[in-house]
Structure formats: C-alpha cells, structure tokens
Write a structure and sequence with these properties.
Length: 120
C-alpha cells in the first residue's frame, strides 16, 4: 500500500477528519489488525519481541517492528532496553495504553456478537 502524499487532497481530508473526530483519531492510532492485537497481548503484562512474535506467528518481524514503533511513537507502548549482554528489550503498555483495556474487551464482545449475527 502506498503512502498518501502530504500535499494530496486525500491527505488533507484525512487530517481534517482526524482533527474533528476523536473516534477516527483513535482508530488511526490502534487501527489495523496488528496494533490492536499487540495491545491486547500487552494487557497481560510486559513481553519481549520474541514472545510477541511467538504469540503472532503470522506477522513478519518487519511488520512487528513497525507496529511497535508506531505504538511507541503514539505513547501507547513503552520500550525498555536493559544493559545486558545480549541486550534485553521489553515492551509494555503505558498508562494511556492500559486505558484501552475496556475498549478492547468491548470490541471483542462486539466482534463475537457480529460473527453470530452474520451467520443467521
């Protein structure tokens, strides 16, 4: 998927919508399957990169790295590097990240309900 050029009308419309609509802003931060599922796993506590990779066997290492960086840039995830050999890096939710807990649980509940609704 190509990036939207910052000078495009599409980019301007997306920015305007995010500024006026908090739901769109929030969805842009945690949107996509990976950001949400990473946060969901981190609700249980700190995890190392390799542990996250095992929990998400279909994600590539590059995608996991990109998603963790995005979540870190948005202050959802905190990355801690320990001065050890070999280096140990742990990821955990920040306070605002933990605030996603009830939202994630509601999305899970809604998803289960919608799956059943579609089957009828």
């Amino acid at each position: 998927m190509s990036k939207i050029k910052e000078s495009s009308t599409n980019f301007a419309n997306k920015q305007a919508l995010m500024e006026e609509c908090s739901e769109v802003y929030a969805a842009n931060i945690i949107g996509g399957q990976w950001g949400l599922v990473i946060c969901s796993w981190l609700l249980n506590g700190k995890l190392r990169f390799s542990e996250l990779k095992k929990l998400l066997p279909t994600i590539t290492e590059r995608m996991l790295t990109l998603q963790l960086r995005k979540l870190e840039e948005n202050k959802i995830v905190k990355r801690t590097v320990y001065a050890e050999v070999p280096p140990r890096v742990e990821y955990e939710l920040t306070e605002i990240g933990y605030d996603l807990g009830p939202v994630i649980k509601l999305l899970e509940k809604w998803g289960e309900k919608h799956k059943r609704f579609k089957e009828v």
